[in-house]
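README, section 4: Worked example with a bound small molecule

Sections 1 through 3 covered apo chains. Here we extend the same pipeline to holo records, where the ligand is supplied as SMILES alongside the sequence. The molecule in this example is zinc ion. Nothing else about the input changes; the structure line simply encodes the ligand pose together with the chain.
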Amino acid sequence: MGRFATASLEQKLIAFRRQLHENPEQSHEEFETTAAIRGWLIEAGIRIVSEYPLETGVIAEVGGLQDGPIIAVRADIDALPIQEETGLSFASRVSGKMHACGHDFHTAAILGAALLLKKREQELKGTVRFLFQPAEEKAKGAIQVIRSGVLAGVSAIFGLHNKPDLPVGTIGIKAGPIMASADGFIVEIEGRGSHAAIPEAGIDPIVVSAHVITALQSVVSRNVGSLDSAVVSVTRLNSGNSWNVIPDKAEFEGTLRTFDERVRAVVRDRFEQIVVGVSSAFGAKAKVHWNDGPPPVINDSEWAARATLVASSVGLDPIEPAPSAAGEDFAFYLQETPGLFVFFGTSGPAEWHHPAFDVDEKALPLAADFFAALSVDALNQLNARP
Ligand SMILES: [Zn+2]
Ligand SMILES: [Zn+2]
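The generated complex, written as structure tokens:
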């Protein structure tokens, strides 16, 4: 198939990305980002579909000149509450906000694919629907977009995340799980306060928390099989405010990650049993509050195989990446329709959500090429299905 993106398209995509990078907006506040994307689409003559009720984010379509299936390609558009420390000439102009997850890269790359496909619209055997999705970082945007009805009639969906530790020119394609479920928990331990010198009169929630948190370390080591994996991390613990008072309450929070819904259910179950059981052994009461995050991102194996061929055809080097224990709300789309989420090599100097995060912009036209070629191929494949 070969490369499609021209030097002038590359310059355009770099300019898009830098404009977004300079003007980061957090989840559900992506109003200027939305306006910018709309402007670029309109300029390219790409139709914006306004029937889906979204306050931020844009849905657009290319194709449909020939009857055929609909596929969707998704880019997330939001930024993070991080103070940028890259020193780039186009660094964030907004204090305390930064595109530190590279969603500016995703947006520009998928815009690039839309622009390339617009030029080949006559050939498209169906429709490519572009989802510029808000609020990925809050894991809320995908659900909103799905509720707007945008997946109706969609046969396959594709998306990407940049990957700083993969070199430019490589693409990480993996059948099955590629990113983790990401649940949050807050645990409240209720004991009984007392004088620090008279502990027998109270139930010390600090001692109880210490035992509970220690016991939680056995959830993964003793309940998850050796070929499965999970992470349980306690990231905050609060209790008390004085040296001579045993407090009546303690609270801790953290996160739970898995790559399999079955493992996720087992781990959540064991977690609750340990928290409640250990607390009650000490005479304390415990409550677990879950903040349900996205499920694991599970890729379709047939689309993974097709994408590997397409990647090679546009000169990319497909590799099988290690899954990431980070969460990604693209998982919700894959619960509705089969598809594929890939990692795109961007040779970054720092990991996601780091103040020094950056991407190598040479990857931009490569990503645009790949998603244009994958869209053409996916429509052809779907048309060939009985
Ligand atoms: Zn992120
Ligand atoms: Zn991200």
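What to look for in the output: The chain has two domains: 7-179+296-384, 181-291. The mean pLDDT is 97.

Section 5 describes how to batch many such records.
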